[in-house]
Amino acid sequence: MSEITPDLVRHLGVLARIQLTDEEVQRLTGELDVIVDNIAKVSRVATADVPATSHPVPLENVFRPDVVGETLTLEQALQNAPDAADGRFRVTAILGEEQ
Questions:
Q1: 34 is a domain residue
Q2: Number of domains in the chain
């Protein structure tokens, strides 16, 4: 039994402010009826014991563990710095103020 009728498609077209030709109404009647039937099939199959999912495959973190490795010494970090003072990189002030 068809739930979607040409009159319903015309009414939906008016609500959506879409001007439909008779050919479009006939084509959409069949297409929408198939869509409604498929939704009904899925609704019959879906049961309470089947959890809803947003992804078909479980998501997992693909990044490596965050493990502390070898680090540079202060001298190694500053050895190629153009200017350094008191164990820090020295850079030109950008705000026009000395700090």
A1: yes
A2: 1
Residue 84 DSSP class: E
For residue 33, the enclosing domain spans 6-45
Q: Which string of b and e fits 6-45 if b means at least 16 CB within 10 Å?
A: eebbbeebeeeeeebeeeebeebbeebbeeeeeeeeeeee
Is residue 6 very low, low, confident or very high in pLDDT (cuts 50, 70, 90)? very high
pLDDT of residue 98: 59
What is the Cα–Cα distance from 80 to 57, expressed in whole angstroms? 48
3-state secondary structure of 89: strand
Q: List, for residues 60-85, the tens digit of each pLDDT value.
A: 888 888 899 999 999 999 999 999 99
Do the beta carbons of residue 30 and residue 2 sit within 8 Å?
no
Q: Is 11 within the bounds of a domain?
A: yes
- Contact between 72 and 78 (Cβ < 8 Å): no
